[in-house]
User: What shape does this take?
Amino acid sequence: MSDNLSLKAFVVLMKASKSIQEAIKHDISNQGMRTSDFSILEALYHKGRLTVREVSEAVLINTGSITYVIDKLEKKGLLERSNCKEDRRVVYIQITEEGKQLMDTIFPQHQQVIEELFDGIAEEDIETTINVLKQVGIKASQEKADDN
Assistant: This one.
């Protein structure tokens, strides 16, 4: 593949990613939430009970920062912690009924915003984009692992 084409694809990907992130951040702030709060609640809403580490990996927030966000969400009654009986080092996080009700209200709107970003793009093109981005992500992860 031409170096120029790879570079162009990279630049377009980065610009698109920035624009998408800004649109999503705007949507989430319109719901009166911070992106980190929403991301954690969304992970728990869709995946159920997770460990702090699993939440951190799902939302791409480091474990040091995530504790602060979890504390705030717990004080608001939107999630709760529970200790693992087999391993005291493991802490589970789960969404509360109040948190679920909040997500039942705001997630459909959020999903609509995402759907609108892809409106007018052929389903086949979206599937191709998914497959290409997965391949690039896997390759980048492998190269990072090879460096370590």
